[in-house]
Every structure is written in C-alpha cells, then in structure tokens.
Amino acid sequence: MKDGSPMSRRRMLALAALASAGVFGCGTNDSVTVRLASGEDGGFYYAFARLLAAAAANETGTLRIEPVETAGSQQNLRMVADGDVDMALALADSASDFGGRVVALGRVYENYLQLAVRTESPIHEVTDLRGRRVNLGAAGSGAAVTGRRLLATAGLDPAADVVVEHRPLRDAAQALTDGTIDALLWAGGVPTAALTVPDPMRLIDLGALASPMREQYGPVYDRVAIPADAYPAGPAIHTIGVANLLLAAATLPDETASAIVDLLVGHADSLVPAEAAGTQFLDGRFLIGTGTVPLHPGAVEVYRRWHG
Questions:
Q1: Do the Cβ atoms of 283 and 107 come closer than 8 Å?
Q2: DSSP 100-132
Q3: Which of 35, 58, 257, 297 is the most buried (most CB within 10 A)?
Q4: Around Cβ 5, how many Cβ atoms within 10 Å?
Q5: For the chain, percent helix, then strand, then coil, each to nearest 5?
Q6: Which residues contact 9 (CB under 8 A, 6 or more apart)?
Q7: How far is it, in rounded angstroms, from Cα 170 to Cα 177?
C-alpha cells in the first residue's frame, strides 16, 4: 500500500491515538495487553483471536492481544462483564444487558449452526432427535443457548424429549464417532476441523427453522448456505446463521478500542482463518451492525471516520 493512501492515514491516526494515550511508551518498550476471551482451541473463535493478536503485534508492536481459551459465548460474556478480560467474542443471541458494562467493537462474521450425525444415522431432521442423546455445545457456549431454542422451535422439549449433554467440541466429536451420542450441535465457522473426526458424517439441513426462529426470538437469526464439499463429499445445505460480536468492557480506554477497530477495518481480509475463507469474510460496511448492543465510543469514532 502506498504512503498517503486512505488506509495508511487511518492507521497513522490509530497509532497516534495510542501514543497520546500512553499505549506506546515514549522512547520505551511499554505495551498494553488486552485479554480476549475467545473459545475452544480448534474452533473459529480461537482461530480468529489468534489472527487478531498477530495483526496487533505486526501493526503496532506495543499493543498485545492475548487470546484466552474458554468454553464460548456465555462464559465470555460473564468474564468481560466481571472484568476478568478486556474483550470477548460472543454470539449475538447470547449477548444481553449487563447494565452498561459490556459494549460492542463490531460485528465480525457469521457463525453457522451445524447439527452433525453419523452418515448411516436415521436422523434426517430435528424432530428425529426425540429420545436421542444430543450434545448442545460445551457448558458456557453459545450453542447451549441456541440449541435449546432450536429444539423448542422444532416442537421438542429440551428437558423431556431429548437427552442433552454438554461436552467440549473435540470430546463430542469423538463421542459421535464412538456412537455414545447421536448428534452434536456446534456454532462455528465452516468447515470446523474437529467436525471431520466422525468419518463419515453428515450435517442436517436446518434452513426451514430459520424463519420460525426469527419470529420467536428476533432478527438475530439468518438463513445461510453451507456449500457443497465444505466437508468431504458433503451436499449443499441451508442452516441458521448467528452474528458474532467482538465485545469490550465499557472501561476499555477509547484510544485502545479505536486502535483495535482500526485493525478490524484495515485487516479484514487477513482476519478469517484460511480454512473458512470460502464461507466467511469481514467487511467494514457491516462491522457497525451490532444490533441492540451499543458501540464503544472508541469504535464509534473509527466508524464515523470510515463511513464519513
């Protein structure tokens, strides 16, 4: 990129803001560490957090983002609200009112609900889960919330009609392979490497439930497509997408928040894990769409500069 381009000017403004805030020590090696609650190793959240950390290290050298492995959205929200971390990734349908303690930096990408079964399984739709053993994500994950909503929308009582388990993704994938569970639900990028463990496996089409999910729970749910061969020999199907938000503690300094949002805007193409580049993207035009979660003032400043 040539000097003096709009992107270079944006980055220079971000660096200047950090310097004025003391993020860059004057003639020192001072740095600021921002802890980011992400997700399970092997999932999209954790991969995204590592890419964002690398962008911060390469771009600033003094702004350090530390990914924190977690169970997922619900745990992340509690951690950022309680001040245990500075930022968090969470599904939009898990985000709720924390009395102004949690604000948004941007809508980063779409999570895909993926209901996986063994290829030879007689399960072909959600109602076939009646009486079956189903893993609805790890305890503390966003899938634990969305999964119960999915079952209820399909007319199943999560407490009575299915046997619900909450295992971490890799354990659940192995349990599906072993036949100790009948299905697992995962909310993440496509493809998710851990979901290639059950060989062969297939995904259940959830597209028909997108509209009733929106009617019941609000416009956080979208009907999205998973392309053919996203998983080996997998057909094209539709499923339910849920926006992912990058959230921050309201106490995060404005200058730090602005610098992080500048990374999102300026490095959008490089912040999607390579294995999911065909189905995921970041776009500066949509980062601002955080729904009912208010934007951090530092993020507002960047988006005003970006959008004019």
A1: no
A2: TSEEEEEEEEEEEEEEEEETT-S--SGGGGTT-
A3: 257
A4: 10
A5: 35, 20, 40
A6: none
A7: 11
Whole-Å CA distances, 60 to 28, 36, 52, 263, 276: 14, 17, 12, 10, 26
Banded pLDDT at 149 (limits 50, 70, 90): very high
Which residue shows structure tokens 């609000």?
218
Task: Report how far residue 259's alpha carbon sits from residue 250's, in angstroms, rounded to the nearest whole number.
Answer: 15
In the structure encoding, which two tokens stand for residue 42, read together? 């092997």
* Type of residue numbered 8: S
CB 224 within 8 A of CB 74: no
Q: What is the pLDDT of residues 164-211, one digit of tens each?
A: 999 998 899 999 999 999 999 998 888 887 787 556 689 999 999 999
Q: For residues 142 and 207, what is the distance between their CA atoms, to the nearest angstrom?
A: 19
39-76 CB burial, b ≥16 within 10 A, e <16: bbebbbbbbbbbbbbebbeebbebbebebbebbbbbbb
